[in-house]
C-alpha cells in the first residue's frame, strides 16, 4: 500500500486519499459559507439591517442601473420578489433607498439616497477577512481557485441549483481550452482575445447565457 502523509503529519496508510476529496471540498465550502453568513449578520446587525437589506444596499452600488429593480435582484439573490420587496420597503422607511420610474415607465428602479450611499460605504468592508485571506495566497493559486470555482458554478447552473450567473463559464462567448497557454487557456469571442485565468469574470456586463 502506498504510504502518505496523514492529516496528523505522520507517515502511514492513506487516511482519506483523493476518493473523498470532493467531500472535503464541499465541507470546506460549507465552512466558508458559515463564516460568510456570520460576517454578514454581524455587519448588518451593527447598522440595524437584516443580511438581505445589507445585500440589497451593496448591490445597488455594484450593479448596473438596469438591474437595480426588485425582480432582477430577487432572482440574483435567489429569494422571491415579495421577500425582496419587503426588504426594499424597510430600506425606504429607513431613508436609505428610493424608487423611481425606469425608462419604460413601468419598472421601478431602485437607487440609494445620500444616507444610503454613506451606509453602503460603511458596509463595503464586511467581507474584508475573506479578501485578506485570499490576498495572502500566491496569484497563481488565486487564479486557479477562481477558475475551479467558476467551473463548479457553471455545473451547478446547468443543474438548476444556481439561478442567475453572469460568469465567463456560463457565457455563449466563452470557448473552453482554446489555447495552449495554461495561464490563458480560454477564449472570449466577444473580446476576440484569450482570457487569462486572472481575468475571468464573475459578473460580466457583456455576458449572454450559453443556452440563449
Ligand atoms: S463576454 Fe464577458 S462573460 Fe462572456 S466570455 Fe467574454 S468576458 Fe467572459
Automatic annotation (TrEMBL):
One MF term in GO for this entry?
A: DNA-binding transcription factor activity
Cite a single GO BP annotation: response to stress
The keyword DNA-binding appears for this protein: yes
Record's SUPFAM superfamilies? Winged helix' DNA-binding domain (SSF46785)
Which keywords does UniProt give here? DNA-binding
Q: Where is the HTH marR-type domain?
A: 18-155
Q: Does the keyword DNA-binding apply?
A: yes
Q: What is the name listed in the Swiss-Prot or TrEMBL entry for this protein?
A: DNA-binding MarR family transcriptional regulator
Origin species? Nonomuraea endophytica
